[in-house]
Amino acid sequence: MDLLRGSIAQARAALACGDVTSAALTAAVVAAARRVQPTINAFLRIDEARALDAAQRLDDERRAAREADGGLPPLHGIPMAHKDMFYRAGRASSGGSRILGEQVQTVTSTALAALDRAGAVEFGVLGMSEFALGVTGHNVHFGDVCNPWNPVHVTGGSSSGSAASVAACVDFAALGSDTGASVRVPAACNGVVGIKTSFGAVSRAGAMPLSQSLDTIGVLARTVEDCAEVFQVIAGHDPADPPTRQWPVVQGAVVQRRGDLAGVRVGVAANFGHDACGGEVAAAMQASLDALRARGAVLVDVVMPDPEALNRLATVVLQAEPAALHRHWIEQRPQDYAPQVLARLRAGLEIPAVRYIEALRARSPFLERMRDEVFAHCDVLHAPVLSFPVPTRAETDVGGGPGMAEMLASFAQWTRPINYLGLPALALPAGFAAGLPVGLQLIGPMFSEPMLFAIGSVYQDEIGFTGWRAPLAG
């Protein structure tokens, strides 16, 4: 088989039996990335020489391990590229911006260090929305990342390069971040799997900050199993990021295989996305629910607690915290921001402190309502990621003009409340609308990632999903 279109497990098996070396696999990935780069612009940098050197060292380790009958870490020899917001000591990480790209970092992010220990080969860095403050994938500094299903359309953001590279089969899996939508929307737009992790599940140390109350680190991959495997590598407590905690999933996050969903209750909230869907998107949502029910899941009607209020509260936090973080640059270097990013940050400076504190204080009561009104009646909540087909880059290129707030709200209205609550959500492909992918999200209680992966895996099997191949994948 063509390993570039396969899973991490398939690539690992080929490496283990000697069908391919890590150096050869890395060279093939780099060549494929260079082939698609002129069309999708997913990469900010491809580090071919450094990656091949690292892959050769791993091949030497593999030979030594075979001779010694020793084991190897789970991602040994697997090439990956990641969103350009994960710092590596001695290099600059742009964060999709002109400003940050000037700063050589002195630390390596905890997530990258975990992947290094697991044996992954980093071969490049991926494009993203400026400072992770964009939900479409536009970037005035480095050019838009384009959708590999149709480059005229958006990839979603801010983890745009992560999703596009995985969908184009030039990256086995990629790290992303999700502060309001930034893993799930790109996953949905590109037909890949993405995990928005629980707040505190994965360390953010050494990753570009945006909102200390909402930032989470996630993974984008072509299958649920690949997503779960990378998640297990990076999850866990890190003293450098105090909100993280050690929790049982660290010992068993890889999908626990189950044949059906008997006994699983899937909540469907008409007021949280379903009533907003129409046409092919509504049909895709219904088909995904039918697939879950075909494997034994019970569909339960629930009501999401006040989605409009949740969105308002999330917006306050997502405006105030980045504005405080960027205040010095806003005052000293406003010309170096894209108009939309600058407009959003300046709006955050106008948020009164009382309003911000009230938004933070409202979170616990809403979590109690989620427990009592939603998760008391279901195990997971099913919702669309976007309730409309993937739009074009031209349609959404509104800059900082009068259409900005409405456009941003439409993209994030079914995702942003989940960040505000700190809950995990697994984005899964659910079909097509207007020829481009449609995505659903399964939302669970805090630290329920293993359950989400298990349910997602059964759903994946039911629909026969083994990783869609975008047209540019060949």
SS class = alpha/beta
Query: How much β-strand is present in the residues?
Result: 5-15%
What's the pLDDT, averaged over the residues?
Answer: 95
Q: Give a short account of the largest sheet.
A: 8 strands, mixed
Q: How many H/I helices? A: 15
Query: Can you give the helix content as a percent range?
Result: 25-40%
- The CATH topology name reads Amidase signature (AS) enzymes
Annotated CATH architecture:
Alpha-Beta Complex
How many extended strands?
11
Shape: globular
CATH uppermost class:
Alpha Beta
Order of helices and strands: HHEHEHEHEHEEHEHEHHHHEHHEEH
Radius of gyration over alpha carbons?
21 Å
Number of domains: 1
Q: Spans of 5+ residues with little confidence (pLDDT < 50)?
A: none
SSE order and pairing:
Layout: H1 8-17, H2 22-40, E1 43-46, H3 48-68, E2 79-83, H4 110-117, E3 121-126, H5 160-167, E4 173-177, H6 184-190, E5 193-196, E6 217-221, H7 224-234, E7 265-269, H8 279-294, E8 298-302, H9 307-332, H10 339-349, H11 353-361, H12 363-375, E9 380-384, H13 404-412, H14 416-421, E10 425-433, E11 436-443, H15 449-463
Parallel strand pairs: 2-3, 7-8, 7-9
Antiparallel strand pairs: 1-3, 4-6, 5-6, 5-10, 9-11, 10-11
Helix pairs in contact: 2-3, 5-6, 7-15, 8-15, 9-10, 9-11
